[in-house]
What does this fold into?
Amino acid sequence: MSENVVHLHKPTDPPTPDTTPTVLTVVPDAPPARPVPLWVRSGRAVKTAVTHERTRSTGRAVARHASYTFNGGLIVARRTWDGRTGSRYERMIRAAEAAGNLETAEEWEERLQRFRAARHHRRMDLLHSPVEAAKGVAVGAGMSIGVLVALGVVMAINTGQISDVITPLSATIDFIALLIRIVQIVWGPALTIGPFLALLALWSVGRKQHAAPAWALPANVRNGEGEPITPSIVVKALRDLGVPALARAIKEMGDAGASMLGPIRIAGCGVEVDVTLPSGVATNEVQNKRRKLAENLTRHEHEVFITIPEAARTVRLWIADSGALDEPIGPSPLVTDETLTANYKTGRAPWGQDLRGDAAELSVYQRHLLVTGLSNQGKTAALRALALWLALDRTVQFWIADLKGVGDWAPFDGIAKVLIEGPSDSHCIQATEMVEDAVEEMNRRIEAVRKDPSLVFPPLIVLVDEAQKAFMCPAKGEDGRPYGGAKATSRYFMAVREIHNQGRAVDVLMWQGTQDPTDQNLPKLVREGAHTRASLVVGTESQAEMALGAKAVNAGAAPHLLRQGLDKGTLVVASDGIAIPAGQSSITVRTHFIDDEPAAEIAARAKALRDGVATLHAIDRTEERDALADVAAVIGDAARMRTDEVLKRLHALDTAVYREWNNVRLKRLLEEHGEEPKKSHGVMVVRRDDVARALANRDADGSASASQ
It folds into this structure.
């Protein structure tokens, strides 16, 4: 019999997998979530409802319309009080005294005295008016009854019925009874509806004045989008400008600064207002705060222009409608009107529109022109638009040097007598020689006018686009003189200066287009010699002064504040050849853009007005000239040409060779080859066919000599 042995000590050997006991782990269920208290859930729901955008919009709408009604009542009460008392005049007097304008204060005081005298007269009349009114009522009633009875007598005589005597009077009494009945019926509803109509009228007044807290106003009004410019907005913008003297003066004025403002006038795509500043505030203090003023008016900086008119202590604000300056203007009349013509002396070029939306037209008569600005902002397009218009006057001659050379001036091939295109130093040299030839032509004209003051010469426009390349050209001539530069030894600089000095007297005019002006690429004497100076956007205020002059910039011209890339074609112009508002020294013009295809069409119309112009391109002055071939070239497609015109064109072709040529020398050249000039209508001319035969004769003589 076996016995079970019970071990009383704890085994120390680790258990084996076979002997390891199985352990069951019981995981209790998670306790149930505690319910969210009702007051917490209610609070969250209330917070969500209160902060929801729809609730906030509704709350703003309720507050806004309630404010419209309440503040509208205040506005009406204030207007009524002003109309019945002299408070308005007293405010104006205090405002004028605060602004230091004693004459205006005296004028308002006189108006106040007249108002008080008239009011006293009306009050004295009220003492006698009850008696007079009673007498009037009695007399009127008696006369009315008499008229009705008389009318009844007439009716009774006509009908033979004595009762008809009172018929008109009875009818009148019945009509009055009917009116009383109507009033009795309408009176009750009118008493009920009347207060609501009055509240609606007050609400309408408040809504028109935006008489509500800013936070309750609609988003488009709070953000300034489409917000109309009102006197209160302008005064508030000036008050918050950061000029202490101006802010103090506005607070001291009884009318809160309204007397500073002139009438707000609609001006094109914006409004214009003159602001008379109070004593102690300088106009430049407002000019220097243009950006802050624009932002106070809820506009961008480029949408506010500040100029200085003739009136002392006055600034003129032009404020554009939001986004209006980003809208393009219409096409040029040159494109839309094929019947348009030009007249150099009396006409004006349709260049674009001013900020008012009016047509901006420029007179070019005897005015040198300078257009400058940063690259790719519309300088060439602005110059070309003027030249295309002027090309429609057949009497105008063009000598053009395009130192960009990308074909912008290609439409003038067949219009211009000289057309140089290219950016290299050799093209700059030819442009310089072209301007020097223009100086020779100018001197020839001046000498001719001295001998015969009655002479009139055709206008000659010498146009150099990208003129900064000519000023910066490093090449030198055989005599060692540099072509470029800004010194007295510079050939281009001195040629331009000579034309500026005397050219307009004989209608030889210099037009230049240049970019990014500096003292090196646009010398002071040259830029100040232009009568019409126009600038697109430039980088700095100093460049603006170079482009337009310090006087124009000090008076508010600000091409450096235009937006590069966004204000392409927008020019600030200083010239007496364009209509500028009184008191201003410049005007901002948004020029018409004429693309290449319509430019070619306009040029074709200009060519049709001319008699076959042979355009001279790059010329090598070092080779020996073929005079007979040159005569054929300058005649071009014309059947005949006056001898003096042939000589002028030869002179323009090569001044050095043909400077001394005259009618005798030209006649001798043709006679050498069996031809000579002939008369047509009493004037000596050279015929194209005669020159062709002379060339043929010369070639035939040359061939015969070679065969022998």
Q: What stands out?
A: Confidence is low (pLDDT under 50) at residues 704-708.
